[in-house]
Amino acid sequence: MKRTNRIVNIMISAMIVFIVVSVFFAIRGFSVIRKTTTESGQDFLLQSTEYVGKVIQLSMKNRHQALNYLAIDGNLKNSDDPATYLQNSRSSLNTFFDSLNNEANVLFYMEADGTPLYAFHWDTEKKQVDIADIETIRPFIRHDLSLKQLLDKPTAQNGDSYFINKKAYVNFYQEIKTTTGQIDGYLILPLNLEAFYKNFLQDFELDYKGYPMIKDRSMTVVMHPVAQQVGLDIINGREKLYPDFDYSDLKRLEKYQLNHSSGKLTYKSYWWDEDTPTEVLKISAFEWIDVGLAHWVVAINADYNERNDDIINFVIVLSFLLVLLLLLIIICSLFIHNFRRKETIEAENRKLIEKQKQQKMQHQLELELYQRNKMETVGLLTTSIVHDMNNFLTPIIGNTQLLLEEHQDDPILEADLEEILHSAQKGKQLSSNVLRFSKPQKSVQEWIDISAAIGVATHLIGEIIPKNVRLSLSIQENLGTTKLEETDLQNLIYNLITNAYQATKENSEKAQKIAINVSPASEELTKTLKKDNHRTNHIDQFVTLEISDNGPGIPADLKEKIFEPFFTTKSADEGTGLGLFAVTSIVAKYEWHLSLVSERGEGTHFFITIPVRSCK
């Protein structure tokens, strides 16, 4: 009895130590996970910052290009008569201003010595250009401190940013030359950066609270979702509006940004887009960019706690459950100890044996539960990563398509953009396939005519097969109905036909052929299926879907591997290794039968046998 009690006490002590260690590692794991999550968020923000920076640079370049086209196509003459220029160029001017989407409403011509000659004003309501008073454009000249640099050395597309009445502008320059090549003057376009921000960055979306902002080299806000923040130094200017706020971390941020070309960090600040800004811990990433003579820092920040709330709650709940389990174990151990003292040696031995059996069973269940939770965690992590990947693949695909439309006259750039678009689409296709098998979906199954469903699916998928591939169909009608999701059947047929088409591409000396045959299953196969699966032993009818090709066949050593996820013999541009894995997953879902016949040089035959009920 003493030995038995000693063993029980040792086991209970070991479990207590295990729980205590688990609580310790849970707390430690929380710190590691939070750090990892923060770094992951910062990396995403840094990628987003680089994307925003490129958008700004490309958009600014497009505006200067538009100004250049205006100078070329606008019948501009070396004349000081604005009415003549307006008469010759009204259509070009109207088109030019309208394309800017309210980002500019003034354009003026300045002589080579810096004297403004005439100006034009764009009426946004009437959608027309009129001659403007020269005095109305003098603030755009007086506040642009980089104008002198232009006159001394006219090389930049635009000057540095400047402010007029708390609004940020940047001047675009386009030199006008005489027939002898001498600079006659400049077309100057003041661009309203607040309107530019609304057009390109206002709707920039994150999965959590945050926004992009742009500052100049003096740490003055140039573009911000809150108009009140524009023109403010991020510390001195804000201190005047909110003197009681803590700016120590903002000073650290300012110093870090001024001494690094790009980076990421965590700091305390406030949400300036709120009526009463509240203090918050932010994660941030930034990058310095050059736009003409302007040197700006593009920064994107996000709410630190919003990204980590789920992790904090999970660890708190986990720690509470572990502590509760520890208390329960202690209480149970005391009860067992007192109970054991009143039992006889024989009864104690019997119960000890029984208890050990129960503990073993409980331990086995705990191991199974642990493994299941671990796999669920892996699935959740996979889904989260793929979801984030989709978030930044979507703007890449969209903007690449826009760039393809804008640069159709540049075949070299168009080829590069098509390669980028193709790679992004392949990444999105891979993420969609991963999400399909890592994220539970609601199943809606209906009884459908198997012959008609296969016919429709084959017709839809056959449209995407190249014309040089011979696709033959042999589908018997009225074979019966079966209960399934039609999208699953379409997905199965799509993957098998795609696999067959890719196999026949290796045919160099014979035509590419794919055959689809739907017929009742043989009596021998029907008996085998009814015998091997008790769920189908009451079913008398089966239909076999055969998809075959005349490709090179599958080597014997690869027949077992081809159904594994992500296994593929194709290049990265042709396959992801998820097609046949999707087929086996659908077959397993409905408990169908899948078989494969393939010989080297004789092609490949896939057989899917489906139980049906009579249409009669």
UniProtKB/TrEMBL annotation:
Its EC number is 2.7.13.3. The chain crosses the membrane at residues 7-27, 311-336. GO terms for molecular function: ATP binding; phosphorelay sensor kinase activity. It catalyses: ATP + protein L-histidine = ADP + protein N-phospho-L-histidine. Residues 384-614 form the Histidine kinase domain. It is an enzyme of class 2 (transferase). Keywords: ATP-binding, Coiled coil, Kinase, Membrane, Nucleotide-binding, Phosphoprotein, Transferase, Transmembrane, Transmembrane helix, Two-component regulatory system. Residues 342-373 form a coiled coil. PANTHER family: C4-DICARBOXYLATE TRANSPORT SENSOR PROTEIN DCTB, SENSOR HISTIDINE KINASE. This is histidine kinase.
